[in-house]
């Protein structure tokens, strides 16, 4: 008869409950949402690039664009609006994640673990308050970036200045409000919660 006892790894996973389970699940959700955001950013970059190219090809002295070009520009603008709408939906989920992190801290404070939450380590070394702080930092970055993208969508097809069009395109692509340390923050969350090996 085969030994059906769980492996040490599966025992470790099943032992994660309560606040630790919620924080670990939230870290995985942050990772998935950021991956979806990046995919949408890439999709939006392609569409924004098409809009800029159409605007740059049309010389100011040409006057009105042919109907087919106007339809293509309108279609691309609609696609870009759709990308930003999907990013807004991701932002709503990020807001709920940050709220969930605060809820875990509030619960632990209520359970008499003090203002900092459960003393470390819940996983490796972080107190619960650190998860809340990092989640809020991620949320703030992506909220600012979403506002920027909303502005870009409003202005991109209407600007007549080629340099400004290229600035908008660069801002979309490089996401100035999502700095490199945001990726490090995400990786830190994944390391701390055991999603990445130390």
Walk me through the structure:
The chain is mostly helical and 198 residues long. It has one domain: Glutathione S-transferase Yfyf (Class Pi), Chain A, domain 2 (Up-down Bundle). It contains 6 helices and no strands. Helix 4 runs antiparallel to helix 5 and helix 4 packs antiparallel against helix 6. It is elongated and about 70 Å long. It starts with 7 loop residues before the first helix and ends in a 6-residue tail after the last helix. The N terminus is likely disordered.
Primary descriptors:
198 residues; Cyclin-dep_Kinase_2_interact; Glutathione S-transferase Yfyf (Class Pi), Chain A, domain 2; Cyclin-dependent kinase 2 interacting protein; mainly alpha; elongated; disordered N terminus; 0% strand
Would you report the number of β strands? Answer: 0
CATH topology: Glutathione S-transferase Yfyf (Class Pi), Chain A, domain 2
Backbone structural class: mainly alpha
The helical percent reads over 70%
Radius of gyration over all CA atoms, rounded: 23 Å
Strand residues, percent: under 5%
Spans of 5+ residues with little confidence (pLDDT < 50)? 1-14
Q: Estimate the mean pLDDT confidence.
A: 85
**Count, helices:** 6
Query: What is the rounded distance between the termini?
Result: 36 Å
Number of domains: 1
- Spell out the helices and strands N to C: HHHHHH
CATH architecture: Up-down Bundle
CATH class: Mainly Alpha
User: What best-fitting shape do the alpha-carbon axes yield?
Assistant: elongated
Protein name: Cyclin-dependent kinase 2 interacting protein
């Amino acid at each position: 008869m085969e030994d059906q006892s769980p492996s040490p790894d599966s025992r470790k996973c099943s032992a994660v409950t309560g606040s630790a389970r919620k924080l670990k699940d939230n870290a995985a959700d942050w990772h998935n949402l950021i991956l979806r955001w990046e995919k949408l950013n890439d999709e939006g970059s392609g569409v924004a690039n098409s809009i800029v190219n159409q605007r740059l090809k049309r010389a100011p002295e040409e006057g009105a664009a042919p109907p087919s070009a106007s339809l293509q520009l309108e279609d691309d603008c609609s696609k870009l609006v759709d990308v930003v709408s999907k990013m807004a939906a991701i932002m709503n989920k990020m807001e709920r994640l940050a709220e969930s992190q605060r809820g875990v801290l509030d619960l632990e404070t209520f359970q008499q673990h003090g203002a900092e939450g459960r003393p470390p380590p819940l996983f490796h070394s972080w107190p619960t308050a650190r998860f809340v702080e990092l989640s809020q930092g991620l949320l703030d970055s992506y909220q600012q970036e979403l506002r920027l993208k909303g502005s870009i969508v409003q202005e991109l097809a209407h600007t007549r200045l080629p340099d400004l069009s290229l600035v908008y395109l660069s801002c979309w692509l490089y996401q100035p409000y999502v700095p490199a340390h945001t990726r490090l923050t995400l990786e830190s969350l994944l390391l701390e919660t055991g999603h990445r090996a130390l």
